[in-house]
Amino acid sequence: MVEQSKKRYITTDDLKKHNQPGDLWISIQGKVYDVSHWVKSHPGGEAAILNLAGQDVTDAFIAYHPGTAWHHLENLHNGYHVKDFHVSEVSRDYRRLASEFSKRGLFEKKGHVTLYTLTCVAAMLAAVFYGVVACTSVWAHLISAFLLGLLWIQSAYVGHDSGHYNVTSTKPCNKLVQLLSGNCITGISIAWWKWTHNAHHISCNSLDHDPDLQHIPVFAVSSKFFKSMTSRFYGRKLTFDPLARFFISYQHWSFYPVMCVGRINLFIQTFLLLFSRRHVPDRALNIAGILVFWTWFPLLVSFLPNWRERIVFVFISMAVTAIQHVQFCLNHFAADVYTGPPNGNDWFEKQTAGTLDISCRSYMDWFFGGLQFQLEHHLFPRLPRCHLRAVSPVVQELCKKHNLPYRSLSWWEANVWTLRTLRKAAVQARDVTSPVMENLLWEALNTHG
After folding, report:
1. CB within 8 A of 72, min separation 6: which ones?
2. Which residues make beta-bridge pairs with 209?
3. Inter-residue contact 332 to 414 (CB < 8 Å)
4. Worst-scoring range by mean pLDDT, 81-85, 343-347, 359-363?
5. What whole-number distance in Å separates Cα of residue 405 and Cα of residue 330?
6. Confidence of residue 411 (pLDDT cuts 50, 70, 90)
7. Inter-CA distances, 24 with 33, 56, 80, 341, 365, Å
8. How many Cβ atoms from other residues are within 10 Å of residue 6's Cβ?
9. Residue 193 DSSP label
10. What end-to-end distance do the CA atoms of the chain give, in Å?
11. Bridge partner list, 20
């Protein structure tokens, strides 16, 4: 009773006032934590906390953090508790499900997916080098280009997994896997991926907070982009100008061709972040990893006999990875969107609304990297991909119980839905009566400012 009387209380309205840089409060299970100064040390980046500050973040915290993280919270507790703290039935069921998975040890049972995948990547990389260096046949070179694109896809899945949870027994080894599978093999910085991907998960399909939907002037999934909204992630205006109007008017035709060369933009984004003034964790290691890639890849291409084969080789290898780029778009482009920051009180609902699953046979799980179970992954990002198929029926039942969407489409259907969404926005963009702002070519690179 004495301890109970010492508690200090605030309301949810009071909590909402602490949502600005320098004054960031969050609540977890009714306890309030001041993360104003700690935000820069947050392993998941600042964006996650900035987007959810002033709210209860219990569901998001459970989704992203292992049980050991709870011990670190006490140092941030400011003594306050939320007086009108309320848990919805959906959240209760979600937390119960997460607790059940934890008790069953699913978050720790990672299987051997990473070992098998990296072994396949190493074998394919060896085959690529052999095909380019030791063979003179044009067909051998073309097959090598195809294999290179395929191993980039598989290596990216390992980087994705290691970014969400430890795929190895120790954190240093996990970091090594991240740098190897991301920076060294694919040429895409794991630091850039974490920066954008964590924000994407937290603000899934928020037009102004989710960077994975902000592709002006090339693509727009909603006519709301035509008002030149401000990206809260990049901190700049997404200008809808004549150039953007032109590109978006034909985006349902340009979608697949752009995906074939979309990897170039990822290379650019990596360099822009690593050499920017932003705080980048392990910047030196990330730059070193990128240098490894830009040493072996140009050297490999240089062994080809002429420039025509070199250009074709690079194009084919990048075009193959378009399969993965398209998949990421299918998971979200045709799903529900909204504007504004995410709401910590409807975590489960926002994830179901903003994601689409891709149905496939179990023998194709390796090809999709587990991300065909996009909703399951968004709800339980720390869950190893080897368990996603097994928990899918449970997630479906929970969605059914609370009358929430669970959409699982075939690959063909998902493409149709995505093209329909792009076409709808394209038709709206052609309305010449809508004024546009001054052309900014630099926006085409989706730069960070």
Report:
1. none
2. none
3. no
4. 343-347
5. 16
6. very high
7. 8, 12, 14, 15, 40
8. 7
9. H
10. 54
11. 23
Q: Which residues pair with 3 in a beta bridge?
A: none
Confidence (pLDDT) at 67: 84
Question: Given this model, what pLDDT does residue 442 score?
Answer: 41
Helix then strand then coil, % of the chain, to nearest 5 = 60, 5, 30
Q: Of 279, 233, 210, give the one whose Cα is nearest residue 39.
A: 279
Q: Give ∠ CA 326-446-356 in degrees, rounded to 5.
A: 30
pLDDT 10s digits, 137-190 = 999 999 999 999 999 999 999 999 998 888 887 888 999 999 999 999 999 999
* Residue whose entry in the numeric block shows the structure tokens 């996009």: 374
Query: φ and ψ at 276, to 5 degrees?
Result: -95, 180
Least confident span in 56-65, 245-254, 377-386, 438-447: 438-447
Residue 440 has pLDDT above 60, yes or no: no
Helix (H, G, I), strand (E, B) or coil at 409: strand
Instruction: In whole angstroms, give the CA distance from residue 375 to residue 266.
Output: 24
Burial status of residue 435 (CB atoms within 10 A of its CB: 0-12, 13-18, 19 or more): exposed
HSE toward the beta carbon, residue 152, CA cutoff 13 A: 26
Cα gap 310→304, rounded to integer Å: 6
Token pair belonging to 320: 């193959």
- Residue 321 amino acid letter: T
Q: At what angle do helices 242-249 and 251-260 cross, to 10 degrees?
A: 90
219-275 pLDDT, tens digit each: 999 999 999 999 999 999 999 999 999 999 999 999 999 999 999 999 999 999 999
Which of these, 163, 128, 162, lies nearest to 147 by C-alpha position? 128
- Cα 217 to Cα 372: distance, rounded to the nearest angstrom: 28
The answer to whether the beta carbons of residues 286 and 274 sit under 8 Å apart is yes
CB 190 within 8 A of CB 45: no
pLDDT one-digit tens code per residue, 176-218 = 999 999 999 999 999 999 999 999 999 999 999 999 999 999 9
Q: Which residues pair with 206 in a beta bridge?
A: 338
Strands 8-10 and 19-20: unpaired
Q: What is the pLDDT of residues 342-355, one digit of tens each?
A: 887 788 999 999 99
- Per DSSP, the three-state class of 4 is helix
Dist. CA 207–CA 129, nearest whole Å:
42
Contact of 343 with 429, CB cutoff 8 Å: no
